[in-house]
Amino acid sequence: MYQYDQYDQRLVDQRVAQFRDQTRRFLDGQLPEEEYRALRLRNGLYIQRFAPMLRIAIPYGLLASRQLRMLAHIARTYDKGYGHFTTRQNMQFNWPRLEDVPDILADLASVQMHAIQTSGNCIRNITADHLAGVAADELVDPRPYCELTRQWATFHPEFNWLPRKFKIAFSSSTTDRAATRVHDIGVHIVRNAAGELGYTIYVGGGLGRMPMIGHAIREFLPQAQLLSYLDAVLRVYNRLGRRDNMHRARIKILVKDLGPQRFAELVEAEWAQVRATADGAALDFGDADLQRMATHFDAPAYRTEAAADRRYESAIAGDSAFAAFARRNVREHRVPGYKIVFVSLKGPGIAPGDITAEQMDRVAELADRYSFGELRATHDQNLVLADVAQEDVHAVWSALREIGLATPNIGLLTDMICCPGLDFCALANAGSIGVAQDINDRFDSLDHLYDIGEIKLKMSGCMNGCGHHTVGHIGILGVDKKGEEWYQVTLGGSAENDATLGDRTGPSFSRDEIADAVQRIVEVYLEQRRDEDESFLACYRRIGMAPFKAHLYPTEVAA
Amino acid sequence: MSAATLIRNGRIEADDYQWPDDADPIPGRGRIVVGLDRWRAEADALNRNDLQVGVALPNTADIESLEHGVLERPLLVLCFPGFADGRAYSQARLLRRRGYHGELRASGDAVVLDQLQSMMRCGFDSFALRADQDPQRCLDAHRAFDLAYQPLDAATPLVSRLRRSTAP
Fold it and tell me: Fewer CB within 10 Å, N or C, chain A?
């Protein structure tokens, strides 16, 4: 993975010193609260319902074991012994003391981590496919491009005070696992007809209260020229994006108001200007830059003899619990003899994405022992050990089972995406964690879950949509109705290549009704699907909303 | 408005420009700053050898379509109407890209210690500090980061260039 050189380290250290000074000035009354707020947000620090919340960047979801140990240390030292993986592959701590945050950032800097631009109206952490480098359907590893983009975006002086937050995601595979088309910019790495590498650029996707799918504004951008094009997009947005209403300030609104065609013309005109000056070439990736960056992501030293080992198959044959894990939580690796192992953070009784310090330490140990010292955070709020020799999968499973992280439910209904909700978040209208528990209880029989198959259930506690509810196969949105928590349900959303927004089922459900509503939706699917191979999403697209509505609101239909 | 402490050329300097109201008569000589609208309306009266006229641009002004006469001014003032409104950063870069070589001054609520270095890197070279700022501390603002990832300005060493020069 990427290792800081002296320059990266110097910049991160200088950022810690800058924030320490800003915090001291705030506490001394020299820095107005509103300004400190904007500055602390750019260092990941929110003031939440109960305490500050600190969001730590995990660039494109990639973590070294020593970094995970540091997160465990921070959880123990400065928080309540646990942390929360977010839907943007970052980690959040919900209970740090504001006064401690400069020290936390210094601790993070000691392992090449930071909280830079994890919130605020600036370019946020760059996200990517959590299977980058190991996925069979990958064109090239997107991470070198992500890291180059991360560096360009870090402390960009022109784009630190945008109309609103700005999220960029990369995908380089036939299956988009990074939800790129619901990002402000989605970068798809592609090859053109001439065989050259480059990008298709999508702009204007987003979730939140006006969910939209991004538009392709450039079908093919040459590989070297990514940053000058992003520069042009950001400049058009910084100049023309709305600032009079924060709910209309995302780039998706600008793209919508101008129309994607007109927006693309403005970007192309600006880009032509950038290319006409020295700025354009200065931003280009040189071949040597790309090669140097790519070496940071070289494949680890896979053992060729790993493919010959048969213990994985025999363990599956001999142990039905392990077989269930292998079926649900293990994916094929592109190197024979290796497997991709998912660590489920969606077990019963815990909030989706939560992990204790002890679990972090144990997972770090497993990464060291079995997966070349690295792991990944997924935007579905799980972890991945991406390079496990198949002979070791059983040992990894046993160790994960001991610490409650082996729930074999990846991709199933209980593998929900969920925001922290009313329990932690100052923005939320409704609880989401409790609802997740109820649904978990309702579908706790694993046999039943397998029978249902792949369903992406995504839940947010408010319109901001941190839980990606609008692109859930089943989406749940918490709303406040006269002080009570209610839940709107959508069906048929998807964040993958066929990105679509879900359709509302109808009136919302009370806290008492919502788990039952999910069960009814699943019942309709099980009854209507052609066979076990027809996914929930495919079934919904075929049969439409009517059968679901009829089962969800029987009295209305009768009346 | 001219009461603000001015940092220019890396030191605290007196503001040598007058800021007449739009209704005030144009003085016979000296240095003044007028708004873009007045400049356009009275360009003939303002374009005199004995008068040095700077122009203050609103942060919505489209720099690409700005008439050439504006780019020949000795001073252009860009405005940050709020601490978090970053439009003038892009305007500054566009002005420099269009070849503007005169004094480029930042004014308004964002002209504070924590933003000065970013402004410098985008092409500003003069800063009308917000009234509550400590001018001495602001003189050191450019020291917060002594490297940069983005090729924006000549003054800050560029990480990619350092890497190429130290690469094996």
Answer: C
